[in-house]
Design goal:
Chain lengths: ~280, ~280
């Protein structure tokens, strides 16, 4: 009986380590494939080079880094305020019945496959931008809007947790002092929930920078540093997905190296979020 | 600047917050209505049960439906035991400490890894190094790694929600911890655990970037685990991006959306039942 229990515990421990092991395997294999070419080309050349002509041996991913940063910031400009507003609405304003409709709807928004978002971008948003704002339509702006909608559920659900974790007494205290509900929200509840809201934004950034299929479909994928919102661009993720199918040799290594850069961005954001998570909830 | 009366600000702010929620809802409604309005007319039994012809310009999507189901099944068979096992270990066997913190950090990071990175990893690890080639197996295993965090998190939450008194009663009746887990805790947590699995199915079916380089894009009906297979999401992506057939793209999107709607409804219903039971 004792040995059986011991065996079970150790087996479960091994299973529990699987997630960590998988993360390590992913990092190891992507790095093994991607770092040699970074070393050969020189890290500076690879990261800051503006010329990407993989069949001619030029591997500069600077335009893609800029492209990723642009669309990610664009997405957050949309999803940050809108997501926070929705979270405040759900926690503070919405009558129970309304919240019971909005919550699953937001969850559904998270469940819609990214290719469907990209498709709606192509058939609706891109023509709209082309006709009313000019440019090719396939643009940083289109990608930002689509990504903004896609990361909305992440921002909403985590901000919502943060707002719900603020002790009721804070709000009651503010109201008792004669604050309006809105004053209580902006001056007491939001500041108290700030660490959690930061986490929501950071994880939203991570989602946006890592999104691939929807972005490929609407961003235009031109390898150049975008000069404005209506210019097409290429992101790190779309660079990988567009060329992976036919890449070999150095070219494939360069795509894995693009993956390494993306991975570093993501781990940085995740670690930031994890650090913040630690002191998210006020102790009871 | 003259300050607005707080009561007036309050009213303006409330209107803005309602508008924000309304905007989010209308985007959702717009996407669903657009896809269903143009896609439902395409959805005939023939479309669902016939093979694509001329690269998808004509015919149906049957092999891609089978492809999606096969990949999802492989992913679940691998990720469910691993995920639930991890959750059991985290809730029943460890005290909060360094090991648990490391495991949780790993799970959180894995959840944040973008699907294209899973695609790269699956391609180099399963397809190339392990020699599985573009196949149902490579794609399914890649998906398994991707959905693992979803299953772990929901299962952990569900198991944690089982009242401690259940365990105490079981222990006092002389049960071992394994007996307590398998006969008392897991059955009580089942609806919650299943919710996680259902959500993971949704993610698997909608995933594109992680499977396109691991399962490949062959349009044949997959007949073995080692056959390359195109999923619905990949097929839809290729149809839409290469402009092969807009009506068929809408039709495939409609199937995806209907599946996601069903899956989310099922997950919600399960969660409501679970909450009602444990509270």
């Amino acid at each position: 009986m004792k040995t059986k229990e011991w065996l079970i515990e150790k087996t479960l421990l091994l299973m529990a380590l699987s997630a960590v092991a998988m993360l390590a395997l992913i990092a190891i294999f992507v790095f093994i494939e991607g770092t040699p070419i970074m070393a050969r080309e020189g890290l500076g050349h690879f990261l800051l080079g503006r010329k990407w002509a993989p069949t001619k041996g030029s591997f500069g991913i600077f335009p893609m880094i800029v492209g990723s940063v642009w669309v990610t910031i664009g997405a957050l400009v949309i999803a940050g305020p809108l997501g926070l507003a929705c979270a405040v609405f759900l926690v503070e304003i919405a009558p129970r019945k309304v919240a019971d409709i909005v919550r699953p709807a937001i969850q559904l928004l998270a469940g819609i496959p990214s290719v469907v978002y990209g498709f709606v971008g192509i058939v609706v948003l891109v023509p709209l931008i082309r006709e009313h704002l000019g440019g090719p339509g396939l643009s940083v702006l289109a990608a930002s809007i689509i990504l903004g909608v896609m990361v909305l559920p992440t921002v909403i659900s985590i901000s919502q947790d943060a707002l719900e974790a603020v002790p009721r007494t804070y709000k009651e205290g503010a109201l008792a002092l004669g604050c309006t509900h809105w004053q209580a929200i902006t001056r007491v509840i939001l500041p108290a929930a700030r660490p959690g809201i930061t986490v929501a934004i950071v994880l939203g950034l991570g989602r946006a920078i890592g999104e691939t299929m929807a972005v490929i479909m609407v961003v235009g994928n031109a390898v150049k540093v975008p000069a404005g919102l209506l210019d097409p661009a290429r992101t790190l993720t779309s660079n990988i997905a567009l060329e992976m199918a036919y890449a070999g040799g150095d070219h494939r290594e360069a795509l894995f190296a693009t993956g390494v850069v993306l991975f570093m961005f993501i781990m940085l954001l995740n670690s930031l979020a994890a650090l913040r998570f630690g002191r998210r909830r006020p102790s009871p | 600047m003259k300050r607005l009366n707080p009561e007036v600000t309050q009213r303006i702010a409330t209107v803005c917050l309602w508008a924000a929620a309304g905007l989010a809802l209308s985007v959702l409604a717009y996407i669903i209505i657009l896809v269903l309005a143009k896609g439902l007319p395409v959805l005939t039994p023939h479309f669902l049960l016939a093979s694509p012809e001329r690269m998808g310009r004509a015919g149906g999507i049957f092999p891609t439906i089978v492809g999606s189901l096969a990949l999802t099944l492989v992913a679940l068979v691998v990720a469910t035991p691993l995920g639930v096992g991890t959750a059991v270990y985290l809730t029943e066997y460890t005290q909060p400490g360094r090991l648990a913190a490391v495991i949780r950090f790993g799970v959180d990071c894995l959840a944040g890894v973008p699907s294209i990175i899973f695609g790269l990893f699956g391609f180099i690890f399963f397809v190339i190094r392990l020699g599985m080639g573009w196949s149902v197996l490579s794609g399914g295993l890649t998906l398994a790694v991707m959905i693992l965090p979803t299953i772990i998190r929901t299962a952990e939450e569900a198991i944690r929600a089982v009242p401690g008194s259940y365990r105490e009663a079981s222990f006092s009746a002389g049960a071992t911890s394994w007996q307590t887990i398998t006969r008392v805790v897991l059955p009580a947590a089942l609806p919650g655990v299943v919710t996680g699995i259902v959500l993971a199915i949704g993610r698997s079916i909608g995933e594109t970037a992680a499977v396109i380089f691991t399962a490949g894009t062959a349009l044949r009906l997959p007949t073995s685990l080692f056959a390359s297979s195109r999923t619905m999401a990949v097929h839809f992506y290729i149809l839409a991006r290469e402009g092969l057939s807009m009506p068929r793209a809408y039709g495939t999107a409609a199937v995806l959306i209907i599946l996601i709607l069903l899956i989310n409804t099922a997950a919600n219903a399960l969660m409501v039942r679970f909450r009602a039971r444990t509270q």
